[in-house]
Fold this sequence. Notes:
Blueprint lengths: L1 E7 L2 E9 L5 E7 L4 H15 L4 E4 L3 H16 L8 E4 L6 H8 L1
Parallel strand pairs: 4-5
Antiparallel strand pairs: 1-2, 2-3
Helix pairs in contact: 1-2
Amino acid sequence: MDETYIKIKGEWAYLYRAVDKFGDTVDFMLSERRDEVAATAFFRQAIDGNGLPEKVVMDKSGANLAGLENINVLLVLAGLLCLMVDICQVKYYDTPHILDQQLR
């Protein structure tokens, strides 16, 4: 999972992307904000469309962590503790090589 700040038709927006282990984009969302609410909305959208992942690798963004923790709380409250998503945060989540491959 990653997000970046991009300009679309003169307007700035955050592009949230879910990428599989092969580097293919499986879902995306544009948002005016980069916060817990936006991250939670993105994870819900991605999970609704693609199913629950076992693990999510992301950078150390506090908003993204909070968003995924919200999903895990919902799973616990639903009695689905065994389905909680494993969260792996890395200091530098570098995806340019993946983006370069997709643009070729």
